[in-house]
Design goal:
With 380 residues, the protein is of the alpha+beta class. Helix content is 33%, strand content 24%. The chain contains twelve helices and 16 strands. The strands form three sheets. An eight-stranded mixed sheet has the order 2-7-8-9-10-11-12-13, with helices on one face. Strand 9 (198-201) and strand 10 (205-211) form a beta hairpin. The radius of gyration is 20 Å and the shape is globular.
């Protein structure tokens, strides 16, 4: 495998991205091959936090370690040693049960705790996504998302893809979080990451997070945390807290709008009744914008990428316009797993960074398929 450095990415990959690959709205992507559908692992929340991930991660621990070493490999040895120390100190400030879970994962993987902290924080800063909430004529809500990850961390010229994106597919599972042998919530997760980016609480609500690019971003929040300002919530931890504690769409919506955050984000929330769908655009300490379903105004779906709804996306990363075109082409009468999967599998919403597509509903839980965008395909 030949991995090309950042200079190649800047000189050759980025110019390709400036001319997006846009295709006609797909109608033939669903059903995808059975081989791409994710298996499910169980995490027992009745177990002590330090051991509850052990059975899930042990069979693929070598792949997780390889991924973490790829992430830390962009740093030189001196920086890694400093980072190991700093992030091990940071670990002691993280809230429970996440601190103990990370400790336990590091024990299973046999690597320094600081590296597992880096791995968990990474998802707070570098994910690029598309999320859709849509309501069919019968009032059923569907929530779809593409998770795009791995930008600028090495280009694999042999397989024509991002190196990290390839490695992420090996550690991706659906996770069934259980108490007393019963499902509490489900997620699509990269094992070793203890937060949630894509999750559903059966019969109650669905939730995804999209990264929001902002100058007052996650790096500022992390710096403030290290300085001692620790009343903010890590976005993936907040999602899990809400899955654990919130008992309704209304309660989840309130928490997403009021909690102070380490990093800005878009929270996309779906409920279990007609009209229950919202995009919450968050700064670290305030709500910037709220977009909601409104069936009486024919607003039967919401689509969010990584740019504020009231602002145009940049020309080199416009996934919003093609996504809206395809949702309208399918129409409300066709809303369901098939239509949303086809929209998310149409380039450029499907791109070289796309790791997976999940479709959720409060009735059926989460189903996830690994994705692989064949050339020609936009790098992001």
């Amino acid at each position: 495998m030949k991995v090309l450095p950042m200079l190649f990415v800047v000189l050759f990959v980025m110019p390709v991205a400036l001319s997006q690959v846009v295709e006609q709205c797909r109608k033939d992507a669903f059903p995808p091959p059975d081989s791409t559908k994710l298996p499910t692992v169980v995490v027992n929340l009745d177990d002590k936090p330090a051991i509850r991930w052990k059975n899930a991660i042990e069979p693929i621990k070598d792949d997780i370690v390889d991924l973490i070493h790829t992430i830390t490999g962009v740093l030189n040895k001196y920086v890694i040693n400093v980072a190991d120390f700093l992030f091990e100190v940071l670990l002691e400030t993280l809230p429970e049960p996440y601190r103990s879970e990370i400790n336990g994962i590091a024990d299973v993987l046999g690597i320094p705790e600081g590296q597992v902290v880096i791995y968990n924080i990474f998802y707070e800063l570098f994910s690029v996504c598309t999320s859709i909430v849509a309501e069919d004529p019968q009032g059923n809500l569907y929530h779809g998302r593409n998770l795009d990850f791995g930008l600028f961390l090495g280009w694999d010229s042999q397989n024509d893809t991002w190196l990290l994106t390839e490695k992420l597919r090996k550690i991706l599972k659906n996770v069934d979080f259980q108490k007393n042998g019963k499902t509490v919530y489900q997620s699509a997760s990269f094992l070793g990451y203890v937060g949630l980016l894509t999750a559903v609480k059966p019969h109650t609500f669905t939730l995804t997070i999209n990264e929001r690019f902002n100058k007052d971003g996650g790096f500022v929040g992390i710096f403030n945390w290290i300085k001692g300002d620790r009343d903010a919530k890590w976005m993936g931890f907040l999602t899990r807290d809400i899955m654990d504690s919130a008992t309704s769409y209304t309660e989840a919506r309130h928490l997403l709008m009021t909690e102070k955050l380490v990093a800005p984000a878009y929270y996309i929330l779906g409920g279990n009744s007609t009209g229950e769908g919202v995009i919450i655009t968050r700064a670290r300490e305030s709500v910037v914008d709220v977009q909601e379903l409104n069936i009486t105004s024919n607003r039967w779906y919401l689509l969010q990428t990584n740019y504020d709804p009231g602002s145009p996306p940049p020309f080199f990363d416009d996934r919003r316009t093609p996504g809206n075109k395809c949702m309208k082409e399918w129409g409300r009468d066709a809303t369901g797993v098939k239509s949303i999967f086809n929209v998310l599998t149409t380039k450029p919403n499907l791109n070289k960074l796309t790791v997976y597509t999940s479709i959720m509903s409060v009735r059926d839980g989460v189903t996830t398929w690994m994705q692989d965008c064949k050339t020609p395909c936009t790098p992001w």
